[in-house]
Each structure stands twice: as structure tokens, then as C-alpha cells.
Amino acid sequence: MNHEELLERTNQKLQAATDKRVADICSRLPHGESATHCVDCGLSIAQGRRDALPGVQHCISCQEINDRYGNHR
Ligand SMILES: [Zn+2]
Hints:
Blueprint: H1 3-28, H2 47-52, H3 60-69
The structure holds zinc ion.
């Protein structure tokens, strides 16, 4: 393997890692309509929280739990 090939492979690996990270972050960002009530516990979600986090689906308590323990579905 010559130097150029090595460089090319390294770039591809870096690019793949970046793509994965971006996709990961995007998948965690809420999308679309905010829920009026938490999808986990059913408590109403404060309007301020819904405005601040478009697409939010969880109340603060459930969000904290999800953030801490992961939210793998
Ligand atoms: Zn909740």
C-alpha cells in the first residue's frame, strides 16, 4: 500500500465516523410536533418546554432518565 492509498483509507474512515456521529446526533434530536403529554408517563409537558424543544415527547423527569440511562428503542 502506498502513502496515497493509506491517506485515502484514513480519510474514508474519518468521513464514515463523522457521518455516523452526525446521524447519531440527528436521531436524538426531536422532530415534528411536540407532544402535549409525556409519551412515557402521561404528564402534561409545560408549554415553555415544548416551545424550547420542538418535537419534544417527554417530560423533564423522563427526559433526564432517558439521557442518563439511554433511550434505546
Ligand atoms: Zn414523563
